[in-house]
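RECORD TYPE: inverse folding
INPUT: structure tokens
STRUCTURE:
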């Protein structure tokens, strides 16, 4: 299949330059060396967040201000909340946050906004909070894209196991996208939805159990977070199982290795570097040119100077275009 057919890009809904133009009266900010921004997330040692941190720090260094990425090393929404509360008390210039639990962080985000601290959600939203806007993937569309490809690979029939973390808004949106895409294929059934609880080893163990006890009853595995896909691929490869479909998410090195080898049929590439870099630039502008009130209802204001959602895009990656992705990644590192 030609590369043009293999790639489905999700369009960026608002570019950074367009956003900056909307901030009336904005001038180039005069940064202070004491100015500091925080990026709060959970499970921050995984490769996905290393990439996001790189984009964040590129922006921090270019502005010659201070910045720090904080949060638990494992997936722990309550520890992430504690870190958010800690940095909010430091009264930083702004906070970027990826909400592992949208409802848990809602009150804390609202308190920061009430205290005059700009808060922007990145990667995982808290849509019912007073966060200023969300920068990240259109997760529903990304899931729908994966679902369309999954149906093609399964030839319209079979049973699917999904690995996810229920309750995390971005993953729930991806699952909804998958379900809607598969609704056109009633012979494809989601047999199980497995909560990996932030630990990709759960995907490894469950896949081993499936191969041992019900190998013929599962035809495909869908992985909605960054690390589960490589675990499923490892199990299938060790067992020399080649008749199962894996559709993964994100582009860490091991996932791309399995895509190159054909063990993972496809994965969805997000842009965590871009999310972080763009969100920082935007929140910095707001810090230096604040609206009259941060707790204004920007989402319902048709004359708002702020967006509600900035879609940084996503791309379906398979063996036809994985080399292009790797080449582009290497060129970026060399710049």
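DESIGNED SEQUENCE:
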């Amino acid at each position: 299949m030609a590369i043009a057919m293999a790639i489905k890009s999700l369009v960026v809904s608002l570019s950074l330059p367009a956003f900056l133009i909307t901030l009336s009266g904005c001038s180039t900010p005069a940064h202070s060396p004491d100015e500091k921004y925080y990026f709060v997330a959970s499970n921050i040692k995984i490769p996905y967040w290393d990439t996001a941190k790189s984009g964040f720090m590129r922006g921090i260094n270019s502005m010659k201000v201070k910045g720090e990425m904080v949060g638990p090393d494992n997936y722990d929404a309550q520890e992430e909340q504690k870190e958010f509360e800690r940095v909010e008390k430091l009264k930083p210039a702004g906070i970027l946050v990826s909400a592992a639990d949208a409802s848990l962080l809602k009150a804390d985000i609202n308190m920061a906004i009430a205290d005059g601290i700009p808060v922007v959600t990145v990667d995982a939203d808290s849509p019912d909070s007073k966060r200023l806007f969300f920068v990240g993937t259109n997760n529903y569309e990304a899931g729908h894209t994966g679902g369309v490809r999954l149906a093609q690979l399964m030839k319209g029939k079979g049973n699917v196991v999904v690995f996810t973390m229920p309750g995390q808004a971005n993953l729930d949106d991806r699952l909804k996208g998958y379900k809607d895409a598969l609704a056109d294929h009633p012979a494809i059934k989601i047999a199980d939805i497995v909560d990996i609880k932030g630990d990709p080893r759960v995907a490894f163990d469950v896949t081993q159990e499936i191969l041992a006890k019900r190998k013929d009853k599962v035809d495909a595995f869908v992985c909605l977070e960054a690390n589960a896909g490589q675990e499923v691929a490892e199990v299938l490869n060790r067992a020399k199982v080649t008749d199962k479909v894996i559709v993964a998410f994100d582009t860490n090195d091991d996932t791309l290795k399995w895509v190159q080898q054909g063990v993972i049929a496809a994965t969805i590439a997000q842009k965590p570097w871009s999310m972080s870099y763009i969100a920082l630039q935007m929140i910095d502008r707001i810090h230096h040119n604040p609206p009259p009130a941060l707790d204004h209802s920007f989402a319902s204001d048709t004359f708002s100077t702020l967006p509600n959602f900035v879609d940084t895009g996503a791309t379906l990656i398979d063996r036809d275009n994985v080399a292009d992705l790797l080449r582009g990644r290497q060129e970026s590192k060399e710049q």
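NOTES: Residues 13-137+272-312 form a domain with the Rossmann fold fold (CATH 3.40.50.2300).
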